[in-house]
Write a structure and sequence with these properties.
mainly alpha, globular, two-stranded antiparallel sheet, Ammonium transporter fold
Amino acid sequence: MTPIAPAMTDTAFALALALLLMAPLAIAGVALINTGLGRSRSAAQALLGNLAIVAVTAIVFALVGASVAGNLPGTPGSEGHILHLGAKPWNWLGAGPFLLGGLGVAPAQAQLALLFEFLAVAMAALIPWGSGADRFRLTAGCAAAAILAAIVFPLFAHWVWAGGWLSQLGVNFSLGAGFLDPGGAAAVHVLGGFSALAVIWIAGPRKGKFPKEGFATALPGHNAVYILFGCMISLVGWLAWNLAGALVWLHAPLAALPVTAINTVLSASAALVATFAVTRVRFGKPDASLCANAWLAGLVASSACAALVTPGQSLAVGFIAGIATPLLVELLELAVSIDDPSGAITVHAGGLLGLLAAGIFAPQQGQLVAQLVGIATLLGFVFPLVYLLFWLVNRVHPFRADADGERIGMDLHELGGGAYPEFVIHRDESYR
């Protein structure tokens, strides 16, 4: 039996609900960034894809995923399917009702947790869509989103947020407070980043990206305004998300929320300043898209630790994320031939940094070990599972558009019209 979560006061509940109603701004920001970092001839397909993925994840999670994810500890079905190994209970799978049965009579706090998960799975599914830009078919992107919403995200979310075995590492093995992920750094961002890597490996790079071994052609995003404005919108959503996560999953007092918000801003700010400096030194001028990636990397890192660290520690985490961002982008592109238009793998690797920081700076004995167990689970189980499921989907419904679709652009190929009909969209040199 998992421990019952402390009941929220009416004030805390109302505040958490208001924050979650603002959290979709983070989703909107990521959608704009995904679109701006792609090519102009695929912009409409990219933005429609973001919207369609949100819709698909909502429906599939309601039909199937919410049952697997379970509810807050102490609510009906939260015990899940438990295996007793080594005299310890291992809660592996949720046992909630299908089709959101009984939602209307569920405790208000459980309904709030479910709303958090609806938004979280939508964000997770948007991340691989951006990495597959300019070649990822719309229907294939929706199929991948359905897989995440039905199986992978609910499974890991149950382990972390609904009394699953990772959250019980503290009770069962005295490892701090168990694996902590209040803002979804692991369940949303690291999962999304691994999903992006799986999509890239399966779909392959865009035509002309790597003309010769060891060389990479720059294919810059078509709209820096979308990218940078998306960063600004994302900050508002991320603040709401981190504060809501602190209330819902950590049961933080209201007095702790201002520090959480400050830490979120500091982490993103330090990351952007660090990347600004690195790109200025390396290239002579700051790079807008890399600075945007760093801003998001700082926000992603804050998802794990903003509610658990001090402002000084948040600055350090963001600064490290900002230094790593341009270097990791270059490493993945030149050394591993990874074609990631949105930079999602690098950005959402910031979640690993934040998870480590939550363990390193935690006052509880064993918290770092609990965080490492969660990270090892993501690397050793979740990523292979995502890759296997995506590979099977690709065998039935190929992820990548045909060569003609990639040549003329995904807008014309899949939607029959471009995003910018009044402007001439030029072909890439690589297609001549």
